[in-house]
Amino acid sequence: MSSQDQQIVFVFPGQGSQYVGMGSDLLRDFPVAQRRYEQANDIVGYDLAKLCLEGPEEDLKLTRHTQPALLTHSLVCLDIFRELTEGQVQPALTAGHSLGEYCALVAAGALDFETALRLVQKRGECMGTYGDGEMLAFPLHLDNIQSLAEKHYCAIAASNLPDQTVVGGRGEDLDRLTEDALAHFPRKKPTRLKTEGAFHTFYMITAALHFRPVLDAAEMHAPTLRVLSNYSGTHHDPDPATIKTRLFYQLFHPVNWIGNLETAFRDGVTTMVEFGGGLGSGANPEDKRPNLESMVKKALRGSDYSVHYHAAINSQTLRQTAAALQP
């Protein structure tokens, strides 16, 4: 099936999908990647490419480094895909999880690469410097965990799926919440996430206030495509000033990813292409799997709706997906 017969959404992952060696194959195989990484190095003021390729992992996973690294990798993948398809594969919609929302806005023409990179560099610095707390992913519906979380001074950080809710709070509060939740739901053990803070909760309010002046000053245009908002769960208003307010609120409100997926399904999307990052224990880019695919498949489980999913996260999958969708 060619792209002309499909409703396509481009999606971009968030923090947690970075890895040491990310982009090594792209830099080897595509001159456009080399140019983009050189541009990124100049913008951030350090050798971002070297950090992505060589680590150390402890530095790459710091929020102030992770966000520029992942945004650059995701948008390099998008650059390469556009080159391979000669710009003929166009989405009807773009979306991203947390940090990935900035990539989605670039893909839709609302931000240029330099502006987006400067924004996420500052965003990451603010979140790492002024944030507090930790995060847990519970295999529970929002309605089952929210009141328990609030009882222990914790807050909802993301609704990823009907049965996957992320909670943020201080470590000792999360420990008490875990004990309480397991008493109610003994088979629903949470997973501790490796983050520098309780992202998308009230623990990020100070970070958001420091980030706001930079966000306010950024040049932004009305997107040429529909873009999904993590804050609202539905489409962004095309007004740039309104988009900025939603990005501000996104820092300390839950990511409504299941809302984004449900909106995309209602829009009639037939195909998803995920750009950037990768998960898995393999050391090489070709060993990685896409970050968001499993959530999409779980969201569709039990429904009559189906979506063709394509990865565009390394040289191999970029070539495969470009060939599959080429008109």
TrEMBL record:
Boundaries of every Malonyl-CoA:ACP transacylase (MAT) domain copy: 11-299
Active site: S98, H200
Enzyme class: transferase
EC id: 2.3.1.39
GO molecular function term, any single one: [acyl-carrier-protein] S-malonyltransferase activity
Family annotation (InterPro entries): Ac_transferase_dom_sf, Acyl_transferase_dom, Acyl_Trfase/lysoPLipase, Mal-CoA-ACP_Trans/PKS_FabD, Malonyl_CoA-ACP_transAc, Malonyl_transacylase_ACP-bd
Catalytic activity: holo-[ACP] + malonyl-CoA = malonyl-[ACP] + CoA
Keyword Transport in annotation: no
UniProt keyword Transferase, yes or no: yes
Cellular component GO terms, alphabetical: cytosol
GO biological process, one term: fatty acid biosynthetic process
Keywords annotated in UniProt: Acyltransferase, Transferase
Family membership: Belongs to the fabD family.
Name of the protein this chain belongs to: Malonyl CoA-acyl carrier protein transacylase
The species this protein was found in: Candidatus Contendobacter odensis Run_B_J11
